[in-house]
Amino acid sequence: MLTYTPVVVGVDSGGSKTVAVVGDTKGNVLGKGTAGAANPLSVGIERSLENIITAIKNGTAKIKNPEIVSLYIGTAGGWPKVLKDLKKAVKLTTLLRIRGELTVEDDLPIALHSGLPEGDGIVLIVGTGSAAYGVDKQGNKVHVSGWNHLLGETGGYELGLKSLIAATRSYDGRGEKTVLEDIVSRHFALDTFESLPLVIKPPFIDSPKIAALTPLVDQAAMDGDRVAKRLIEEMITEMDCSIRTAATRAGIEKGLRVVLVGSIFRMKYPVLEELKTKVMTWMKDVEFVFPSEEPAMTAFKFALKAARA
Length: 309
Known about the structure:
Elements: E1 5-13, E2 18-23, E3 29-35, H1 40-59, E4 66-75, H2 80-92, E5 98-106, H3 108-115, E6 122-126, E7 130-135, E8 141-145, H4 156-172, H5 180-187, H6 196-199, H7 207-211, H8 214-222, H9 226-249, E9 256-261, H10 271-279, E10 286-289, H11 295-308
Protein backbone atom coordinates (compact mmCIF):
# COMPACT_ATOMS: atom_id res chain seq x y z
CA MET A 1 0.00 0.00 0.00
CA LEU A 2 1.30 3.43 -0.99
CA THR A 3 2.18 5.62 1.97
CA TYR A 4 1.84 9.41 1.65
CA THR A 5 3.69 12.17 3.47
CA PRO A 6 1.34 14.91 4.72
CA VAL A 7 2.58 18.41 3.87
CA VAL A 8 1.41 21.96 4.34
CA VAL A 9 2.05 24.42 1.48
CA GLY A 10 2.00 28.20 1.21
CA VAL A 11 2.29 29.87 -2.19
CA ASP A 12 2.96 33.47 -3.16
CA SER A 13 2.23 33.87 -6.86
CA GLY A 14 3.12 37.22 -8.40
CA GLY A 15 3.57 39.02 -11.66
CA SER A 16 7.17 37.92 -12.13
CA LYS A 17 7.65 34.77 -10.08
CA THR A 18 5.93 32.18 -7.91
CA VAL A 19 7.32 30.91 -4.60
CA ALA A 20 6.09 27.88 -2.65
CA VAL A 21 7.11 27.01 0.92
CA VAL A 22 6.49 23.39 1.95
CA GLY A 23 6.54 22.02 5.47
CA ASP A 24 5.13 19.40 7.81
CA THR A 25 2.12 19.73 10.11
CA LYS A 26 4.39 20.71 13.01
CA GLY A 27 5.53 23.83 11.17
CA ASN A 28 8.96 22.62 10.08
CA VAL A 29 9.94 23.85 6.61
CA LEU A 30 10.93 20.94 4.38
CA GLY A 31 11.43 22.63 1.03
CA LYS A 32 11.01 25.66 -1.16
CA GLY A 33 10.25 25.90 -4.86
CA THR A 34 10.07 28.69 -7.41
CA ALA A 35 8.59 29.13 -10.87
CA GLY A 36 7.57 31.86 -13.31
CA ALA A 37 4.80 34.46 -13.27
CA ALA A 38 1.38 33.43 -11.98
CA ASN A 39 -0.79 36.55 -12.01
CA PRO A 40 -3.97 35.31 -13.73
CA LEU A 41 -4.80 38.80 -14.96
CA SER A 42 -1.59 39.05 -16.96
CA VAL A 43 -0.73 35.46 -17.91
CA GLY A 44 -4.10 33.72 -17.65
CA ILE A 45 -5.47 30.96 -15.41
CA GLU A 46 -3.81 28.12 -17.33
CA ARG A 47 -0.28 29.53 -17.14
CA SER A 48 -0.80 30.61 -13.53
CA LEU A 49 -1.85 27.08 -12.59
CA GLU A 50 1.13 25.65 -14.45
CA ASN A 51 3.60 27.82 -12.54
CA ILE A 52 1.91 27.23 -9.18
CA ILE A 53 2.14 23.49 -9.75
CA THR A 54 5.77 23.79 -10.85
CA ALA A 55 6.71 25.79 -7.74
CA ILE A 56 5.01 23.24 -5.47
CA LYS A 57 6.61 20.32 -7.33
CA ASN A 58 10.02 21.94 -6.96
CA GLY A 59 9.38 22.45 -3.26
CA THR A 60 8.35 18.84 -2.71
CA ALA A 61 11.01 17.29 -4.94
CA LYS A 62 12.79 15.62 -2.02
CA ILE A 63 9.61 14.49 -0.24
CA LYS A 64 8.34 10.99 -0.89
CA ASN A 65 4.71 10.85 -2.09
CA PRO A 66 3.61 14.25 -0.76
CA GLU A 67 -0.04 14.72 0.10
CA ILE A 68 -1.15 18.31 0.66
CA VAL A 69 -3.31 18.55 3.77
CA SER A 70 -3.53 22.35 3.64
CA LEU A 71 -2.73 24.70 0.76
CA TYR A 72 -2.87 28.50 0.90
CA ILE A 73 -2.30 30.43 -2.32
CA GLY A 74 -1.94 34.20 -2.28
CA THR A 75 -2.05 35.50 -5.84
CA ALA A 76 -1.54 38.84 -7.52
CA GLY A 77 -4.55 39.99 -9.51
CA GLY A 78 -6.85 38.34 -6.98
CA TRP A 79 -10.23 39.77 -7.83
CA PRO A 80 -13.25 37.59 -6.79
CA LYS A 81 -13.94 36.03 -10.21
CA VAL A 82 -10.25 35.34 -10.72
CA LEU A 83 -9.93 33.69 -7.30
CA LYS A 84 -12.95 31.51 -7.97
CA ASP A 85 -11.62 30.37 -11.36
CA LEU A 86 -8.12 29.72 -10.04
CA LYS A 87 -9.41 27.75 -7.05
CA LYS A 88 -11.51 25.61 -9.38
CA ALA A 89 -8.49 24.96 -11.60
CA VAL A 90 -6.35 23.94 -8.60
CA LYS A 91 -9.09 21.63 -7.34
CA LEU A 92 -9.40 19.90 -10.71
CA THR A 93 -5.71 19.33 -11.38
CA THR A 94 -4.47 15.77 -11.17
CA LEU A 95 -0.85 16.87 -10.88
CA LEU A 96 -1.13 17.59 -7.17
CA ARG A 97 -2.55 15.33 -4.45
CA ILE A 98 -4.67 17.66 -2.31
CA ARG A 99 -6.64 16.06 0.51
CA GLY A 100 -7.36 18.94 2.82
CA GLU A 101 -7.91 22.69 3.15
CA LEU A 102 -7.55 24.81 0.01
CA THR A 103 -7.58 28.60 0.23
CA VAL A 104 -7.02 30.88 -2.75
CA GLU A 105 -6.85 34.54 -1.78
CA ASP A 106 -5.27 37.64 -3.21
CA ASP A 107 -1.66 38.20 -2.18
CA LEU A 108 -2.31 41.36 -0.19
CA PRO A 109 -3.15 39.81 3.22
CA ILE A 110 0.02 37.71 3.28
CA ALA A 111 2.05 40.74 2.19
CA LEU A 112 0.56 42.86 5.00
CA HIS A 113 1.11 40.20 7.67
CA SER A 114 4.65 39.50 6.46
CA GLY A 115 5.61 42.92 7.84
CA LEU A 116 2.91 43.59 10.43
CA PRO A 117 1.89 40.26 12.01
CA GLU A 118 -1.18 41.86 13.61
CA GLY A 119 -2.24 43.44 10.34
CA ASP A 120 -2.38 46.89 11.96
CA GLY A 121 -1.64 49.08 8.96
CA ILE A 122 -1.63 48.92 5.19
CA VAL A 123 0.59 47.29 2.62
CA LEU A 124 1.84 48.61 -0.69
CA ILE A 125 3.09 46.04 -3.16
CA VAL A 126 5.00 47.36 -6.15
CA GLY A 127 6.62 44.83 -8.44
CA THR A 128 5.51 44.08 -11.98
CA GLY A 129 2.20 45.66 -10.98
CA SER A 130 0.98 47.21 -7.76
CA ALA A 131 -1.80 47.31 -5.19
CA ALA A 132 -2.45 48.67 -1.72
CA TYR A 133 -4.50 46.96 0.98
CA GLY A 134 -5.75 47.40 4.50
CA VAL A 135 -8.73 46.74 6.73
CA ASP A 136 -11.03 49.44 8.09
CA LYS A 137 -12.40 49.65 11.65
CA GLN A 138 -15.45 47.61 10.69
CA GLY A 139 -13.28 44.79 9.37
CA ASN A 140 -13.97 45.55 5.71
CA LYS A 141 -11.14 44.98 3.26
CA VAL A 142 -9.78 48.05 1.49
CA HIS A 143 -8.31 47.23 -1.91
CA VAL A 144 -6.68 49.94 -4.04
CA SER A 145 -5.45 49.42 -7.61
CA GLY A 146 -4.31 45.94 -8.67
CA TRP A 147 -6.60 46.07 -11.72
CA ASN A 148 -4.04 44.57 -14.09
CA HIS A 149 -0.96 45.71 -15.97
CA LEU A 150 -3.05 47.24 -18.78
CA LEU A 151 -5.44 49.25 -16.61
CA GLY A 152 -3.23 51.80 -14.93
CA GLU A 153 -1.63 50.07 -11.96
CA THR A 154 1.85 51.45 -11.51
CA GLY A 155 4.92 49.22 -11.31
CA GLY A 156 7.54 47.57 -13.45
CA TYR A 157 5.25 46.81 -16.37
CA GLU A 158 3.93 50.35 -16.63
CA LEU A 159 7.44 51.73 -16.23
CA GLY A 160 8.63 49.45 -19.03
CA LEU A 161 5.72 50.40 -21.25
CA LYS A 162 6.27 54.11 -20.65
CA SER A 163 9.94 53.57 -21.48
CA LEU A 164 8.98 52.02 -24.81
CA ILE A 165 6.78 55.02 -25.60
CA ALA A 166 9.51 57.45 -24.56
CA ALA A 167 11.96 55.59 -26.80
CA THR A 168 9.67 55.89 -29.83
CA ARG A 169 9.17 59.59 -29.14
CA SER A 170 12.92 60.04 -28.85
CA TYR A 171 13.53 58.22 -32.12
CA ASP A 172 10.90 60.29 -33.96
CA GLY A 173 11.94 63.59 -32.48
CA ARG A 174 8.47 64.04 -30.93
CA GLY A 175 9.96 63.91 -27.47
CA GLU A 176 13.11 64.56 -25.52
CA LYS A 177 16.16 62.57 -26.59
CA THR A 178 16.84 59.69 -24.21
CA VAL A 179 19.18 56.73 -23.86
CA LEU A 180 16.06 54.60 -23.50
CA GLU A 181 16.05 54.46 -27.29
CA ASP A 182 19.29 52.44 -27.28
CA ILE A 183 18.28 50.49 -24.18
CA VAL A 184 15.07 49.27 -25.83
CA SER A 185 16.95 48.29 -29.00
CA ARG A 186 19.40 46.15 -27.03
CA HIS A 187 16.80 44.69 -24.69
CA PHE A 188 14.68 43.33 -27.52
CA ALA A 189 17.70 42.55 -29.76
CA LEU A 190 16.33 44.72 -32.58
CA ASP A 191 18.15 44.76 -35.91
CA THR A 192 16.85 48.29 -36.38
CA PHE A 193 14.66 50.40 -34.15
CA GLU A 194 11.95 50.34 -36.82
CA SER A 195 11.44 46.64 -36.14
CA LEU A 196 10.07 47.38 -32.63
CA PRO A 197 6.41 47.15 -33.79
CA LEU A 198 7.13 43.61 -34.98
CA VAL A 199 7.98 42.66 -31.39
CA ILE A 200 5.52 44.76 -29.37
CA LYS A 201 2.20 43.82 -30.94
CA PRO A 202 -0.87 41.69 -30.17
CA PRO A 203 -0.94 39.05 -28.83
CA PHE A 204 2.35 40.05 -27.17
CA ILE A 205 1.45 40.26 -23.46
CA ASP A 206 4.69 39.09 -21.90
CA SER A 207 4.55 41.44 -18.93
CA PRO A 208 7.74 40.05 -17.31
CA LYS A 209 9.71 40.83 -20.50
CA ILE A 210 8.45 44.41 -20.55
CA ALA A 211 8.86 44.78 -16.79
CA ALA A 212 12.45 43.54 -17.21
CA LEU A 213 13.24 47.00 -18.59
CA THR A 214 12.93 48.35 -15.02
CA PRO A 215 16.57 47.87 -13.88
CA LEU A 216 17.74 49.37 -17.17
CA VAL A 217 15.54 52.43 -16.71
CA ASP A 218 16.73 52.60 -13.11
CA GLN A 219 20.38 52.68 -14.20
CA ALA A 220 19.63 55.26 -16.90
CA ALA A 221 18.06 57.52 -14.27
CA MET A 222 21.07 57.05 -11.97
CA ASP A 223 23.32 57.97 -14.88
CA GLY A 224 21.42 61.22 -15.31
CA ASP A 225 18.92 60.53 -18.09
CA ARG A 226 16.18 63.10 -17.56
CA VAL A 227 13.43 61.09 -19.22
CA ALA A 228 14.16 57.95 -17.19
CA LYS A 229 14.17 60.01 -14.01
CA ARG A 230 10.84 61.61 -14.88
CA LEU A 231 9.23 58.21 -15.49
CA ILE A 232 10.38 56.92 -12.10
CA GLU A 233 9.15 60.10 -10.41
CA GLU A 234 5.72 59.57 -12.00
CA MET A 235 5.70 56.04 -10.59
CA ILE A 236 6.55 57.31 -7.09
CA THR A 237 3.69 59.83 -7.30
CA GLU A 238 1.28 57.00 -8.11
CA MET A 239 2.62 54.98 -5.18
CA ASP A 240 1.96 57.92 -2.85
CA CYS A 241 -1.56 58.20 -4.27
CA SER A 242 -2.26 54.52 -3.55
CA ILE A 243 -1.03 54.82 0.05
CA ARG A 244 -3.10 57.93 0.68
CA THR A 245 -6.22 56.40 -0.83
CA ALA A 246 -5.87 53.18 1.18
CA ALA A 247 -5.21 55.07 4.41
CA THR A 248 -8.21 57.35 3.84
CA ARG A 249 -10.57 54.50 3.03
CA ALA A 250 -9.31 52.51 6.04
CA GLY A 251 -9.97 55.50 8.28
CA ILE A 252 -6.36 55.86 9.42
CA GLU A 253 -5.85 59.47 10.53
CA LYS A 254 -2.65 59.06 12.53
CA GLY A 255 -0.04 56.45 13.35
CA LEU A 256 0.06 55.12 9.80
CA ARG A 257 2.19 52.00 9.33
CA VAL A 258 2.99 50.89 5.80
CA VAL A 259 4.54 47.59 4.75
CA LEU A 260 6.52 47.96 1.54
CA VAL A 261 6.82 44.85 -0.62
CA GLY A 262 8.20 44.31 -4.09
CA SER A 263 11.19 44.63 -6.39
CA ILE A 264 10.68 48.35 -7.01
CA PHE A 265 11.95 49.06 -3.49
CA ARG A 266 15.26 47.43 -4.39
CA MET A 267 16.01 49.90 -7.16
CA LYS A 268 19.16 52.00 -7.04
CA TYR A 269 17.11 55.15 -7.47
CA PRO A 270 16.09 56.61 -4.05
CA VAL A 271 12.49 55.45 -4.37
CA LEU A 272 11.88 54.99 -0.63
CA GLU A 273 13.37 58.34 0.32
CA GLU A 274 11.28 60.22 -2.22
CA LEU A 275 8.14 58.27 -1.34
CA LYS A 276 8.63 59.12 2.34
CA THR A 277 8.95 62.79 1.47
CA LYS A 278 5.68 62.74 -0.47
CA VAL A 279 3.72 60.81 2.17
CA MET A 280 4.93 63.06 4.98
CA THR A 281 3.34 66.09 3.30
CA TRP A 282 -0.07 64.71 4.33
CA MET A 283 0.76 62.25 7.17
CA LYS A 284 3.55 63.24 9.56
CA ASP A 285 3.08 60.26 11.84
CA VAL A 286 4.06 57.46 9.47
CA GLU A 287 6.31 54.41 9.74
CA PHE A 288 7.52 52.36 6.80
CA VAL A 289 8.48 48.74 7.42
CA PHE A 290 9.72 45.90 5.27
CA PRO A 291 8.64 42.26 5.61
CA SER A 292 10.31 40.31 8.39
CA GLU A 293 9.74 37.18 6.29
CA GLU A 294 8.94 36.47 2.67
CA PRO A 295 5.21 36.45 1.85
CA ALA A 296 5.38 32.78 0.85
CA MET A 297 6.43 31.97 4.41
CA THR A 298 3.45 33.92 5.72
CA ALA A 299 1.24 31.95 3.31
CA PHE A 300 2.70 28.76 4.78
CA LYS A 301 1.79 29.94 8.29
CA PHE A 302 -1.76 30.71 7.12
CA ALA A 303 -1.96 27.19 5.64
CA LEU A 304 -0.61 25.70 8.86
CA LYS A 305 -3.23 27.58 10.91
CA ALA A 306 -5.98 26.24 8.63
CA ALA A 307 -4.63 22.71 9.01
CA ARG A 308 -4.79 22.94 12.77
CA ALA A 309 -8.25 24.52 12.89
